[in-house]
């Protein structure tokens, strides 16, 4: 069985607040999946924060502004990542080492899951961008633009590597 014939997959993107990086990653990834005609391979694409600080909030305006500038629609309200999501998503994909620690060492221990969170930059196999998607919250709009470029590239690499498709 090729990767293309396996069951539909689900992806959760995770950052700290779920208002800057992970809603951007979700929006970019969803847009690529749709425009590349790959929707049939997915049953769930969503995003969450390891903290509950911003639950219910719209994405940070710098994040949505950057996505809109590139023609990528954003439609999300912040949600808190729950331990059970390790069992509900095939891929739990986070942005930096702090997210990774929180997910795998703290949240994961509350479940019996074999699933493990990974960095989005794990799919950056040729090192074209920095592997870590840095927290842009206290910086300027340039940080959001770099996050956008990283997430776009990592999304394409994920699709190529996990679905075995040529883009
Ligand atoms: P995010 O960015 O994790 O990419 O959503 C942040 C959003 C809010 C805060 C930190 C990072 N905060 O400290 O409120």
TrEMBL record:
It is found in: Cytoplasm. This is Low molecular weight phosphotyrosine protein phosphatase. The active site is at residues 15, 21, 135. Signal peptide: none annotated. GO terms for molecular function: acid phosphatase activity; protein tyrosine phosphatase activity. Its EC number is 3.1.3.2. Its main location: cytoplasm. Gene3D superfamilies: 3.40.50.2300. It comes from the Eukaryota. One of its GO terms (cellular component) is cytoplasm. PANTHER family: LOW MOLECULAR WEIGHT PHOSPHOTYROSINE PROTEIN PHOSPHATASE, LOW MOLECULAR WEIGHT PROTEIN TYROSINE PHOSPHATASE. Residues 9-161 form the Phosphotyrosine protein phosphatase I domain. SMART domains: LMWPc. It catalyses: a phosphate monoester + H2O = an alcohol + phosphate; O-phospho-L-tyrosyl-[protein] + H2O = L-tyrosyl-[protein] + phosphate. InterPro entries: LMW_PTPase, Ptyr_pPase, Ptyr_pPase_sf, Tyr_phospatase_low_mol_wt. Belongs to the low molecular weight phosphotyrosine protein phosphatase family. CDD domains: LMWPTP (cd16343). Keywords: Cytoplasm, Hydrolase, Protein phosphatase.
């Amino acid at each position: 069985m090729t990767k293309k014939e396996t069951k539909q997959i689900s992806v959760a993107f995770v950052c700290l607040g779920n208002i800057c990086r992970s809603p951007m990653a979700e929006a970019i990834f969803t847009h690529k999946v749709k425009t590349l005609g790959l929707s049939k391979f997915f049953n769930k694409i969503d995003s969450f924060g390891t903290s509950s600080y911003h639950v219910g909030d719209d994405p940070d305006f710098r994040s949505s502004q950057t996505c809109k500038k590139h023609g990528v629609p954003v439609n999300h309200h912040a949600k808190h990542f729950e331990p059970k999501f390790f069992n509900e998503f095939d891929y739990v994909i986070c942005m930096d080492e702090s997210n990774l620690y929180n997910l795998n060492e703290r949240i994961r221990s509350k479940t019996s899951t074999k699933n493990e969170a990974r960095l989005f930059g794990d799919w950056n196999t040729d090192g074209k961008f920095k592997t870590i998607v840095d927290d842009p919250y206290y910086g300027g709009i340039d940080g959001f633009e770099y996050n956008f470029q990283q997430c776009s590239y990592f999304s394409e690499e994920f699709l190529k590597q996990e679905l075995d498709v040529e883009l």
